[in-house]
Amino acid sequence: MDRNSVVGLILIAAVIMVFGILNKPSKEELEQRQKFQDSIEASQLPATSDSLMPAAIADSTPITGDSIAALVSDSTPVNDTFAFSPARTGNREEFSLENDLIRVSLSSLGGKISSVELKKYKTYDGKPLMLIKSDTGSFGFNFFSQNRSVSTSQLYFSREYVSADSVVLKLDAGENRSITYHYSIKPDSYLFDFEVQFHSLNKLVAPNTSYLELGWNYYMLQTEKDMKSERMNAAPYYMFSADKEVESMSFSKDEKTNISTRLKWVAFKQHFFTCAIIAAGEFEKPTSISISESGEGEVIKSCAVDFSVPFNHHSEEATTYQFYFGPNHYQTLKKLNLNMEQLISLGFFGFVSKWLVIPVFNWLNSFNLNFGIIILILTILIRIILLPLTYKSFMATAKMRVLQPEVSELNEKYKEDAVKKQQALMALYRKAGVNPLGGCIPALLQVPILFAMFSFFPTSIELRQESFLWAKDLSTYDSILNLPFTIPFYGNHVSLFTLLMTVSILLYSSINMQMTAATNPQMKIAMYIMPVMLLGVFNNYSAGLSYYYLLSNLFGLGQQFMFKAFVNEEEIHKKIQENKKKPVKKSAFQERLEKMAKERGYQVPKKK
């Protein structure tokens, strides 16, 4: 591997480091603690949300499920309206629907989903994994009736029908006028059906009203050990119904967007789990979505969405939705046929993960192997696939190493004339049949796999809470020592896999420098500084990722020694000398160099 190859590898490492730095929120962004923007109407953010988060943030009191419940109980009383006044009071009841995957609780207050538990997952500390907890957030329709504001999230629904897989709740407005919520669940599915029926509501809604507002306030709750990482991976997503394009909002700052295009779904995506609402047809425009960083307690971010639901003033109207409460698992989301698999960021070279890494990973997982073993086998398979490129790179490096004495001689001979030196070097390479970029190009062709793995491991829920050796969770960092202080650019813990990976890179660099023809002192220093800088980036990354790079480097070293044992450099030198005797055609690059030399008045040697 010559100088170009070394430069290529340094650039690859630099890109990885910059990528990691750019994905970290700034100090100002981390300290940003704002309320939802005042432009969000009161009908979108009910009293529970206005009194809930800002007060807790203002006095820096940690937010817990109990404190949230206490704040909700003291919220502003609902509006007293004529038709809906009987629903202002009532007995709060809870109803439960569940299958093998999720358990959903429904509350008669607001008729909303009051809690959601994913039964096959636990939080980082072994507790039940709740995507929604009782009395957090709000959900319901907002409209005007008899010149007064009505928010269904603050009114009591009554039980109409309850079975093992279905619950029907009714908000009675008297005189056969009502709003009915019909919830149902299917076996072995993370989807949860929701149908709304309006009975004679046209007698109550103002005649000039063409839309009702459907508002959902959602609080993302901590499920992972590293809250900072969770915040960096949490944001609302939405898909346009026309072109199926998926967009996301900011991951690092408060943001509000008003979307004037019809949507198919809106999802509140966390690191490994997602809550989403999906329209049976499409959500009419406009839709308003907000996200705000919470900062304290178990709430990592606050989100709100306000939909426009068409109202045609018919005596009977209905609208249907689905909720998705489940993991960010690529195959699970892909089966929905809603492009929701795009919630999982696979990076610029995502096609490599889609067509190579994920299928192989899932196939190996079907054998119920430990994930440390799966990563080991995956590394071996990838190394085998890359073997031809690796061998070609090694041979190009060997040829450059054989030519190094002649290259040094030309460098010394033409050290005062850069044009003549480059001209002489290209003539030497051409006669010897050596491509100076031969070692760099194969290395660059490996970049898609390098970056695919960089994106795959931190987002792979399969690694979540899977242990291997000393690492208790391969999806996050493997801390073997928690520091009582924070080291800038490094962190407050020591990741052993990251340390071993760094050592392997240093070892790999050292051996490569000995095997290559590179002699530039600055380049040697850079080759040793870069791994140390990467140490700070990878210290907070997935242990599975560091483990993979460690294995890849070790196998790479093994291949280097194997090639060296079987490649005879004397034979390579003999073949190069034979190539020099053969007539060669000038390349376009050589012709341009000679033209430049002639224009500057230099004597160009004739072809022999």
Description:
By secondary structure, the protein is α+β, with helices and mostly antiparallel strands. The protein has two domains: about 5-20 and about 350-580, no CATH class; about 30-345, Beta-galactosidase, Chain A, domain 5 (Distorted Sandwich). About 40% of the residues lie in helices and about 25% in strands. It has helices spanning about 5-20, 25-30, 45-60, 65-75, 225-230, 330-335, 350-365, 370-385, 385-415, 420-430, 440-445, 445-460, 495-515, 520-540, 545-565, 570-580, 590-600; strands at about 95-100, 100-105, 115-120, 130, 140-145, 150, 160, 165-170, 180-185, 190-200, 210-220, 235-240, 245-250, 255-260, 265-270, 275-295, 300-310, 315-325, 480-485, 490-495. The strands form three sheets. Strands 5, 6, 7, 8, 9, 10, 11, 12, 13, 14, 15, 16, 17 and 18 form a 14-stranded antiparallel beta sheet that branches. Strands 1-2-3-4 form a four-stranded antiparallel beta sheet, with no helix packed on it. The chain has a two-stranded antiparallel sheet with strand order 19-20. Helix 8 (about 370-385) crosses helix 15 and helix 10 packs across helix 16. The longest helix is centred in the middle third of the chain and has 27 residues, at about 385-415. The radius of gyration is 32 Å and the shape is elongated. The model is unreliable at about 1-10 and about 25-80 (pLDDT under 50).
